[in-house]
Amino acid sequence: MNLSNEESAVSRFHCELKLEQKGAHARAPGERQGTFVDGVRWRQSRARGRSGSAGGQPPARHDAEAVAPERRQPLTGIGPGREEALSAHPMQSGPGYAEASPGHRMQAGPLHTEASPELTNDAGPVAPPERATFGDLVATSLATRASFERMACAAACSATVLLEGETGTGKSRAAQAIHRSGARANAPFLVVDCGALPANLLESELFGHEKGAFTGAIQRRVGAFEEADGGTIFLDEIGELPAELQPKLLRVLENREIRRLGSNTYQPVNVRVIAATHRDLRQEVQEGRFRADLYFRLAVVGISIPSLRERTEDIPFIVERILAGLGATPEQQAKLTTPDFLARLQRAAWPGNVRELRNHLERCLVFQDALPPTAPDAANPLAPTGSRTVDPSLTYAEARRRALENFERDYVEALLKLHGGKVSRAAAAADMDRVYLYRLLRRHGLKS
Ligand SMILES: Nc1ncnc2c1ncn2[C@@H]1O[C@H](COP(=O)(O)OP(=O)(O)OP(=O)(O)O)[C@@H](O)[C@H]1O
To answer: Where is there biased composition of kind Basic and acidic residues (predicted)?
Structure first.
């Protein structure tokens, strides 16, 4: 695929190309910034074969024939002025990249597919859905299998990975699986939640500090990058990385060296970086909240983890895994995997994705019952999810503690839902400290 853009003044994302069966579909992403071709605002165009067309004004010439039909990945073109030009490197194939050369696709070892036990219906045997696994992840849907393929590619190299997906889709688990399936498996895997700490503490957490670097720095501290030497650092919630730390992380990714707070010297580090976010980082770049150059450094291998509602076929497999992980007895397993119950689970919305499904199954085990998935009032996400009754057989103190606990859980769950899983926004709206909200979410199993 050839992309050309001679305009040196363009920045951010101005053209998104999607390769479809019938040809290439190009469109201008977002509404805020205009994309202009020869002074005319351009929104979208379709190109077949070698031609590009937008009323005779193609935004770029795209040679669709050069890409195999199965390589239908969205491609975002950017201007070469401020950011890197699109590269034909095989691993630059994340969100915003197309795999330029099908021949370069890497197939790594740890991806497995196997047929699940044979199913039958009245008409005789039916083809069982194929089960694919990557590490301890299991799936059958095409969307998840595609993400497993990319994880396998990522595991086979040390390139930086960006995992994108809604909250609770399993990004942390995917990061661990990539680490464990690669050459660094026996080296450390360190997790840093970029949204859980204020900027100055986060900087010290990542890069460490020298004694006396700031008030309270009573001794030298080694940061996560140094601690993870030889292994992997998992930067969770990278979209929350404060603006002042973005250039510092960029420098680490570019030069593979860090500088402790209070030190004058840089030291080399050998760390593989996997980052994750529930945000649309490209949108964050568009809006100027996330540096474009950092985005491209992170998204060398971009992997999108689909929401649970986009892959309901996976639910029976995931339920089986979760129940085994929760130590369910064979009787409990049988009760919670009946076709009827699984169908109900597949019909539920699961805005909290696999995490919410897991919490629900845990409740089923506690109450020894195949509880129907709760369907909170969509029109009013703050509506209580169940009626609360008081138990007068408890002491006042215990009853009060439980009531507060229930209120806290319902409140933060509904709050997060109301703000689309965005913790910072939820905290600001509720006038709460973001770090405290994180703590509450963790305490109630709403965030790991
Ligand atoms: N495929 C899976 N099989 C079993 N359990 C899973 C799977 N995927 C996720 N989970 C469970 O769901 C929960 C959420 O997973 P995880 O923390 O990896 O999600 P996440 O996308 O990183 O969430 P967040 O964006 O909120 O950090 C965890 O308890 C995890 O063990």
So the answer is: 60-73
Angle at 387 between CA 382 and CA 389, to 5 degrees: 130
ipTM: 0.97
**Ligand 1 interacting residues, C-beta cut-off 6 A:** 137, 165, 167-173, 236, 276, 278, 318, 321-322, 354-355, 358, 447-448
Coil/strand/helix, residue 111: strand
Q: What is the pLDDT of residue 46?
A: 62
- Nearest residue (by CA) to ligand 1, atom 28, is 355
The DSSP output letter for 354 is H
The tens digit of pLDDT for each residue in 30-39 reads 544 555 555 5
Residue nearest to atom 4 of ligand 1 (CA): 322
The amino acid sitting at 93 is S
Ligand 1: nearest atom to the Cα of 354:
12
DSSP-assigned letter for residue 15? E
